[in-house]
Amino acid sequence: MTKKRVRSVPIYVWVRPDELEVIRERMAEAGIRNMSAYIRKMALGGYVLHVDLEPVKELVSLQRRCANNLNQAAIHANSYGGLYPDELKRLQKDYADLWGPLSDLLAQLAAIVTM
């Protein structure tokens, strides 16, 4: 039994070698490896949005470290009865360092989405 194709109508497009190279470069920029998917996306939607999430990964890593520090501080407070003032200041600085860039990044992502 052969599975029926979802897309059953082929479209053929002829390009010059230099145009093919530009298409491949743009596919790479968009992170798309399937040429058919890329051309279909461009023809139907007009653009492909590729967002570099590396800053988000860095912020998630920072958030994990801050959460770990907070957990350790909570264990210390529950086991030994409190935190030292310099530990609290360091935790507050870590959270301030996290929320500033996170707020900026969210504003940038919101600007991209509303384009």
Structure notes:
- The chain is mainly alpha-helical.
- Helix content is 70%, strand content 0%.
- 0% of the residues are buried.
- The mean pLDDT is 81.
List the helices and strands and how they pair.
Layout: H1 17-30, H2 35-45, H3 54-80, H4 85-113
Distance between the termini: 46 Å
Specify the helix fraction band. Answer: over 70%
Largest sheet: none
Instruction: Return the string of H and E elements.
Output: HHHH
What structural class do the secondary elements suggest?
A: mainly alpha
Strand content of the residues, in percent? under 5%
Overall 3D form: elongated
Q: Overall mean pLDDT score?
A: 81
Radius of gyration, in Å, reads 24 Å
pLDDT < 50 stretches? none
DSSP summary, beta strand count: 0
Tally of contiguous helical segments: 4
Provide tags for this entry.
115 residues; mainly alpha; 4 helices
In brief:
With 115 residues, the chain is mainly alpha-helical. It is built from 4 helices and no strands.
